[in-house]
């Protein structure tokens, strides 16, 4: 069944308040609900329908009288009085048998919940839609020492705890946790003087991994006050770490629940990248308190209203805490890897989709990351001051609302007087615009002519021009900037912009800061790119110049059998040895475009990509880089060692990133000597893992891999790394066999999404290994997707996206993939989640 945005109607009742009592038992939890319904004056009264799935109804009453509702797989209907009434129900559920990890389930003996998007209906009968908001009071009965829910604690005693959340909320923000947990406590005073109790709850043994997350939380609270003027609004804020979790984390009101991989951190077990990610996710979930909870979504089509904005906010936070250019470059790498890939294939959909079968399939890079890009463009177009004004208006006008994208754009129109009709296409039109640039020079006037075109996507054969903010600067022939960054606002399919009064023909720096999520097509020569790599004042475009040089060189190696380009290697050497540049920036410049990026570019240029060849040429390029500048790399490695105690801050992390990138290259020359030494002396996970992966990439890690397992076998999150790196760094012809061997390992547990993704996420991301001509990778993944779907449809469906690029490849690979997709599609009892994904991918 397909659900359409156009069909939205409000619910016939509002919910005045909700009382829930939980009598916890693993196989037979009782949930007793008491809900006050009042006719909704803004809706036409329809049939009284409550969502409910996998529930056993024990009893139901209306105004104290027993009733016998009509029950289906999706919920119940019941005859109800004309006016207001009280609904009471008792249901039974079995959290210990809930492997979908949606609703109330158990993880390592602990009770926890995940309700977004539509999991509350697995807890009790309820109008489970985000526009129905209510005040919840929750009583939890059980022996567990810690029993938590949303809001403020109001009472507790022998075997029970009661919570009251004064802020009306939709059911998807409901949460409950109970178990043997220990708290890492702290406090925060808001700027208006409110004293807030903070806790990170973990399983006994993980107490020493909470300090960093707590600091990140306090920084986030402060930042949201300083930058957005938003204060926290309850007496207590709790975070709980859970090992079995489908996604990263969840912003339940006052009780955020985290995948333990996204909150637990220690120098010995977490890498620099882990620390940065944890800080960002804690911020993200905290920021949802205003952008998501206080102002929520009217319906799930509006998901980007909270997610795009909250990703944009957490990216700004990270930029402020660490390095702005490095954050921007990393985000663009990620956007291209995940969102452009989605936009270019069968799963392309608008930032605000117009239909879905299973909403969980739309928690995508497009909704989240492109959704954040759209907000970044809006901010650039209106300017920082107007953005701040519009946001104040948004919070003023919509606090307590379940809002829409129309509401969001209206505050910008009202705050700035701008007409956003055309801009709104960013929410409705799928696909990545291609932006073609040509330049001309005439007697002191330099003209840039742009043409935009968005390729067709499923259901959208033709596209209209978008509003494109194009940030441009001009560099004079001697390397000085002659035009500082200025914003060109493109609205037509084709448009020219001129700069006059110039003494000499400049070199343009186009799309500075990646000011719009487009594919820029600018035909320039190697010299111009090298010139920009040396002289651009915009760090993002400087990096981009290096990236495009690398890409050009690799594409020539792949399509023409060219040698690694000395012009690229020379330019690279100049940049990486420039000690005035941030080491993190230099590390990013040393990295090559991904195999996936190269495959997409080849495909678009009319060449069928050969994954094995792409892999080999990237290896050859790395080898050439190492041979071109061995002494410089050795110096970088030595100079950027970080002495003293490990700190996860941006500065030492940047030094480690550069040193370890150099190590990866040097390992190709020294047979692993430096990496083995680093492995032996490492006292933190960043150093240990960098050494181990360097050794893995030359196939010389046997001893260290065994030692690593022995050292960490009791730590689930570290063992996830052990699983994934073996797949990620295998030679392509062995990738599928390595993955197959790992799933036979006693520590492989398909029920744990982190462990499942460690193996199969790594398999599907190693392009050459996954697409090995034997088809072994496809078959292995399909086998396990079929197995997992019976337990956990949500995680299974997400992993189906591994097949989304199938139409790029040759007929042989396409036939193999098609057969696997059809094998999955033909399974009896296939989940709605997986069936929707496989159908969309097949119908390309
Ligand atoms: N709202 C959460 C976040 O972005 C994601 C939860 C999504 N869960 C799901 N089952 N689709 O922070
Ligand atoms: Zn979010």
Automatic annotation (TrEMBL):
<feature type="domain" description="Peptidase M1 alanyl aminopeptidase C-terminal">
    <location>
        <begin position="527"/>
        <end position="843"/>
    </location>
</feature>
<dbReference type="InterPro" id="IPR038438">
    <property type="entry name" value="PepN_Ig-like_sf"/>
</dbReference>
<protein>
    <recommendedName>
        <fullName>Aminopeptidase N</fullName>
        <ecNumber>3.4.11.2</ecNumber>
    </recommendedName>
</protein>
<dbReference type="InterPro" id="IPR001930">
    <property type="entry name" value="Peptidase_M1"/>
</dbReference>
<dbReference type="Pfam" id="PF17900">
    <property type="entry name" value="Peptidase_M1_N"/>
</dbReference>
<dbReference type="Pfam" id="PF01433">
    <property type="entry name" value="Peptidase_M1"/>
</dbReference>
<feature type="domain" description="Peptidase M1 alanyl aminopeptidase Ig-like fold">
    <location>
        <begin position="431"/>
        <end position="522"/>
    </location>
</feature>
<dbReference type="GO" id="GO:0008270">
    <property type="term" value="F:zinc ion binding"/>
</dbReference>
<comment type="similarity">
    <text>Belongs to the peptidase M1 family.</text>
</comment>
<dbReference type="InterPro" id="IPR014782">
    <property type="entry name" value="Peptidase_M1_dom"/>
</dbReference>
<feature type="domain" description="Peptidase M1 membrane alanine aminopeptidase">
    <location>
        <begin position="212"/>
        <end position="426"/>
    </location>
</feature>
<dbReference type="InterPro" id="IPR045357">
    <property type="entry name" value="Aminopeptidase_N-like_N"/>
</dbReference>
<dbReference type="GO" id="GO:0008237">
    <property type="term" value="F:metallopeptidase activity"/>
</dbReference>
<dbReference type="InterPro" id="IPR012779">
    <property type="entry name" value="Peptidase_M1_pepN"/>
</dbReference>
<keyword id="KW-0862">Zinc</keyword>
<dbReference type="InterPro" id="IPR042097">
    <property type="entry name" value="Aminopeptidase_N-like_N_sf"/>
</dbReference>
<dbReference type="GO" id="GO:0016285">
    <property type="term" value="F:alanyl aminopeptidase activity"/>
</dbReference>
<dbReference type="InterPro" id="IPR035414">
    <property type="entry name" value="Peptidase_M1_pepN_Ig-like"/>
</dbReference>
<keyword id="KW-0479">Metal-binding</keyword>
<dbReference type="Pfam" id="PF17432">
    <property type="entry name" value="DUF3458_C"/>
</dbReference>
<feature type="domain" description="Aminopeptidase N-like N-terminal">
    <location>
        <begin position="98"/>
        <end position="173"/>
    </location>
</feature>
<dbReference type="InterPro" id="IPR027268">
    <property type="entry name" value="Peptidase_M4/M1_CTD_sf"/>
</dbReference>
<dbReference type="InterPro" id="IPR037144">
    <property type="entry name" value="Peptidase_M1_pepN_C_sf"/>
</dbReference>
<keyword id="KW-0645">Protease</keyword>
<keyword id="KW-0031">Aminopeptidase</keyword>
<keyword id="KW-0482">Metalloprotease</keyword>
<dbReference type="GO" id="GO:0006508">
    <property type="term" value="P:proteolysis"/>
</dbReference>
<dbReference type="InterPro" id="IPR024601">
    <property type="entry name" value="Peptidase_M1_pepN_C"/>
</dbReference>
<dbReference type="Pfam" id="PF11940">
    <property type="entry name" value="DUF3458"/>
</dbReference>
<keyword id="KW-0378">Hydrolase</keyword>
């Amino acid at each position: 069944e397909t659900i359409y945005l156009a069909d939205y109607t409000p619910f016939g009742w509002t919910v005045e308040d909700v009382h829930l009592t939980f009598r916890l038992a693993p196989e037979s939890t009782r949930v007793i609900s008491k809900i006050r319904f009042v006719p909704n004056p803004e809706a036409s009264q329809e049939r009284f329908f409550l969502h409910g799935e996998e529930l056993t109804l024990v009893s139901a009453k209306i105004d104290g009288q027993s009733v016998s509702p009509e029950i289906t797989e999706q919920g119940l209907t019941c005859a109800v009085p004309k006016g207001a009434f009280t609904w009471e129900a008792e249901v039974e559920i079995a959290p210990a048998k809930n492997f979908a990890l949606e609703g109330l389930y158990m993880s390592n003996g602990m009770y926890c919940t995940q309700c977004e998007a539509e999991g509350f209906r697995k807890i009790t009968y309820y109008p489970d839609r985000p526009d129905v908001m209510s005040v919840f009071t929750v009583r939890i009965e059980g022996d567990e020492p810690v029993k938590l829910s949303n809001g403020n604690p109001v009472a507790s005693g022998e075997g029970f705890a009661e919570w009251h959340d004064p802020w009306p909320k939709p059911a998807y923000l409901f949460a409950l946790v109970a178990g043997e947990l220990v708290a890492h406590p702290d406090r925060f005073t808001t700027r208006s003087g409110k004293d807030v109790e903070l806790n990170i709850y973990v399983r006994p043994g993980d107490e020493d991994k909470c300090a960093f997350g707590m600091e990140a939380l306090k920084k986030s609270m402060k930042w949201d006050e300083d930058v957005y003027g938003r204060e926290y609004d309850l007496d207590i804020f709790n975070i709980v770490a859970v090992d079995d979790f489908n996604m990263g984390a969840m912003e339940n009101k006052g009780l955020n629940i985290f995948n333990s991989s996204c909150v637990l951190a220690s120098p010995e077990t977490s890498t620099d990248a882990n620390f940065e990610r944890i800080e960002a996710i804690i911020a993200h979930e905290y920021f949802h308190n205003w952008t998501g909870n206080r102002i929520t979504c009217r319906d799930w089509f509006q998901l980007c209203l909270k997610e795009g904005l909250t990703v944009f906010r957490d990216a700004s936070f990270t930029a402020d805490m660490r390095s702005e250019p490095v954050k921007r470059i990393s985000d663009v790498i990620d956007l291209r890897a995940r969102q452009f890939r989605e936009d270019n294939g069968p799963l392309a959909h608008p930032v605000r989709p117009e239909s879905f079968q299973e909403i969980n399939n739309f928690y995508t890079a497009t909704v989240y990351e492109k959704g954040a890009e759209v907000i970044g463009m809006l901010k650039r177009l209106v300017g920082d001051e107007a953005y701040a004004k519009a946001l104040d208006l948004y919070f003023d006008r919509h606090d307590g609302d379940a809002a829409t994208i129309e509401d969001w754009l209206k505050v910008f129109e009202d705050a700035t007087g701008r007409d956003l009709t055309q801009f709104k296409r960013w929410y409705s039109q799928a696909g990545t615009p291609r932006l073609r640039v040509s330049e001309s020079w005439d007697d002191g006037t330099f003209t840039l002519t742009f043409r935009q075109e968005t390729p067709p996507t499923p259901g959208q054969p033709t596209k209209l021009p978008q509003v494109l903010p194009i940030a441009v600067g001009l560099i004079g022939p001697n390397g000085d900037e002659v035009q500082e960054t200025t914003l060109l606002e493109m609205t037509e399919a084709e448009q020219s912009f001129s700069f006059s009064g110039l003494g000499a023909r400049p070199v343009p720096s186009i799309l500075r800061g990646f000011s719009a999520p487009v594919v820029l097509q600018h035909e320039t020569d190697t010299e111009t790119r090298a010139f920009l790599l040396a002289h651009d004042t915009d760090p993002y475009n400087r990096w981009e110049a290096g990236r495009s040089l690398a890409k050009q060189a690799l594409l020539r190696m792949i399509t023409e059998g060219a040698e690694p380009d000395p012009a690229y290697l020379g330019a690279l050497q100049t940049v990486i040895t420039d000690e005035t540049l941030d080491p993190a920036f230099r590390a990013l410049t040393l990295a090559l475009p991904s195999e996936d990026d190269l495959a997409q570019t080849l495909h678009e240029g009319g060449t069928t990509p050969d994954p094995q060849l792409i892999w080999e040429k990237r290896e050859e390029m790395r080898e050439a880089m190492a041979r071109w500048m061995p002494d410089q790399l050795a110096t970088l490695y030595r100079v950027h060692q970080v002495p003293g105690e490990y700190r996860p801050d941006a500065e030492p992390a940047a030094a480690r990133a550069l040193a370890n990138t150099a190590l990866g290259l040097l390992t190709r020359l020294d047979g692993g000597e430096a990496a083995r030494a680093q492995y032996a002396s490492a006292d933190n996970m960043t150093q240990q893992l960098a050494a181990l992966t360097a050794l893995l990439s030359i196939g010389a890690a046997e001893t260290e891999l065994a030692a690593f397992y022995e050292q960490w076998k009791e730590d689930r999150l570290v063992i996830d790394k052990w699983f994934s790196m073996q797949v990620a760094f295998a030679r392509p012809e062995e990738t599928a066999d390595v993955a197959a061997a790992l799933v036979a390992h006693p520590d492989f547990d398909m029920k744990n999404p982190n462990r499942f993704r460690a193996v199969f996420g790594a398999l599907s991301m190693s392009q050459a290994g996954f697409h090995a001509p034997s088809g072994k990778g496809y078959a292995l993944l399909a086998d396990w997707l079929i197995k997992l779907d019976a337990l956990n449809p949500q995680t299974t469906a997400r992993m189906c996206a591994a097949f989304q690029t199938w139409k790029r490849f040759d007929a042989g690979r396409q036939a193999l993939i098609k057969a696997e997709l059809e094998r999955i599609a033909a399974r009896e009892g296939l989940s709605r989640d997986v069936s929707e994904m496989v159908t969309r991918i097949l119908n390309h």
